[in-house]
Amino acid sequence: MIRRLTLTLAVCVAACAPDExxxxxxxxxxxxxxxxxxxxEPLETPTEPNTLRFLEQATFxxxxxxxxxxxxxxxxxxxxxxxxxxAITDQFAAPRSTxxxxxxxxxxxxxxFHAVHGQDQLRLRIAFALSQILVVSQNxxxxxxxxxxxxxxxxxxxxxxxxxQRAFGNFRQLLEDVxxxxxxxxxxxxxxxxxxxxxxxxxxxxxxxxREMLQLFTLGLHKLNENGTPVLDNLGRTTPSYTEAxxxxxxxxxxxxxxxxxxCPTIGRTNPPTYAAPMMDCAVNHNSTSKELLRGVWTTxxxxxxxxxxxxxxxxxxxxNLPPFICKQLIQHLVTSNPSPEYVQDVVNIFKNNGSxxxxxxxxxxxxxxxxxxxxxxxxxxxxxxxxGHLRSPALHVTTLVRGLxxxxxxxxxxxxxxxxxxxSQSMGQYxxxxxxxxxxxxxxxxxxxxxxxxxxxxxxxxxxxVTARANxxxxxLFAAATANAGVLIDLDILPVNSSDTVQWLNRYFLHxxxxxxxxxxxxxxxxxxxxxxxxxxxxLAVYLTSLAPEFQIQR
Length: 556
Hints:
Layout: H1 2-10, H2 48-58, H3 76-82, H4 84-92, H5 107-117, H6 121-131, H7 151-166, H8 171-180, H9 182-187, H10 208-218, H11 244-253, E1 257-258, E2 280-281, H12 305-317, H13 322-334, H14 341-352, H15 362-371, E3 390-391, H16 394-404, E4 408-409, H17 417-427, H18 464-479, H19 481-485, E5 488-489, H20 499-510, H21 517-528, H22 535-548, H23 550-553, E6 554-555
Antiparallel strand pairs: 1-2, 3-6, 4-5
């Protein structure tokens, strides 16, 4: 009965209607990171609702300190004490969580443990976002049976560690490190991309990495204005951001790389897979001729693999399409699926110049995203309310509930609570870190159903089965004894005993004060019914109904 009742609420998740109001005013471009004029609310003295919104965007779910003498840096109390600007700085300095490909617990389990307990919440959120843009999937890496180690896990752990390490660095360095990482080399055939057969006969290099690098990792299919809107010709048609000939040119420029080894192989040959070091350049398998890249730029004639790699990546990095393509996706992952053109433009300005003439500074970009007026304040801008926010992805649905209910993952003995959270996320359509394709779990341009042109990437994996799974997962977290037996522990004593106070607590901490009267009445009436059960069961029912309502499912 409980599941059927909330399924009715859950299927209303698509409650994102097109906005008819005027666009929100935009904040002037930054002169330096963190120095913009703030109209929403002072960054140094955030209210509790604004703080909760910030933690929804910058962590895997808000949590309270519950009287800790020194509130952890990812708690409501800490952010309200130091302010949002300093809270971001504190997160930049937090110790980094890492993944171990040889550990007993698989990478999905490790991911969810870090997401619940890791101090480096913002770094983890950015690395998770980057893993959905610069995609490698564990299930796309073969396991070499003749070796003792599990190559898929070892390779993917190394790749996730790379994304975590570079999350606050420069995008140009990140792009090069990703290009030369052996996991990417295997997944998209960058490794052993040869320009010659063993007999010396020239062959066309593999275009797989070059194509996906242009289409998915840097530029996108169509030219964009700096504010993220498409460039249209005089007939209203989009314009391609690159040509097939340019894909081929990049494939030639990026040829000649193989797995690390003591020496380069002979012509047409390859080194065996290894994931312990970046790939190595071997001129004997590289096409050294000059090729035309983007915007009329040519690679150097008789260039080395490393020289051509630099020229190719510099060429892409300097392309005007890259900043809006990347910045809009980062905003989508952290804040809202449909940022205003002004929001995208302001973040793009920082990507182009961080205030010190540096392009691609991700630390400055992230700060700008989180400090922008469209992200800050107790509630989203009124003019954008109907179009603002994003559906919580399965992973975020799980972690937000666990962290919000004072959750802990008990790894005593053989318990593997991270695996329980991972299986829940998988049942809802997001198997971390095993996206089904290079397009990740869902494409960034997926439409919101019935949204009149609005984007809703996470809706691409929301269907009858996964909506039901959200209800089942939430029910298991709250009601199933097997959950605690697996080491997933929550504390419902943090909720008040009185029914009205329980609803108000959920309004305060789960919805930062935005609960509608309709939802309040639904929850209060349900838990006040004589058949609702004892106090503990009433609390569980209140959390269950609130967390499956559209007002919670759509993070605003």
